[in-house]
């Protein structure tokens, strides 16, 4: 599953505004109901572009999980070894890129692949979460990118 962080953050911000203003999807004029005392309070979050990981000069910050590999300020193709392999379960890969072109990322030897579009003049950040059925030893991430596209990446597992 590939998640575009800009869309996720925008949806979260709209939800927070709707909840805090008492709006509902029904559009009716019913009075706002008080929130139960045990309900979680919405927390403001930063988009990747506002964080230290929002550039290609630094590896992006993963929302969850332990970082097992990170690279920054890269152009073109790269093979990133995952020292000690990866365990079965969720694997997160966050990519920030800048420049016109597409980046193709594959998890080897599982063969899982995702692609992200990069835009000239701005940093685009995307997060892919893949469920690996079993451990993979050895393992690496293979990135194919045009030389004109700068990128950074973080890989993590909980």
Notes on the structure:
With 158 residues, this protein is mainly beta. It has one helix and nine strands. It has a five-stranded antiparallel sheet. It has a four-stranded antiparallel sheet with strand order 3-8-5-6, with no helix packed on it. A hairpin with a 3-residue loop joins strand 5 (101-108) and strand 6. The longest helix is centred in the first third of the chain and has 17 residues, at 5-21. The radius of gyration is 19 Å and the shape is globular. The two termini are 17 Å apart. The relative contact order is 0.26. Mean pLDDT is 75; it is low at 1-53.
Q: How would you summarize what this structure contains?
A:
With 158 residues, the chain is mainly beta.
- Total count of strands: 9
Order of helices and strands: EHEEEEEEEE
- What level of helicity do the residues show? 10-25%
Please list the strands of the largest sheet in the order they lie side by side: 1-7-4-9-2
- Please work out how many helical segments DSSP would assign: 1
List the SSEs and their pairings.
Blueprint: E1 2-4, H1 5-21, E2 66-75, E3 78-81, E4 89-98, E5 101-108, E6 112-118, E7 123-132, E8 140-144, E9 150-157
Antiparallel strand pairs: 1-7, 2-9, 3-8, 4-7, 4-9, 5-6, 5-8
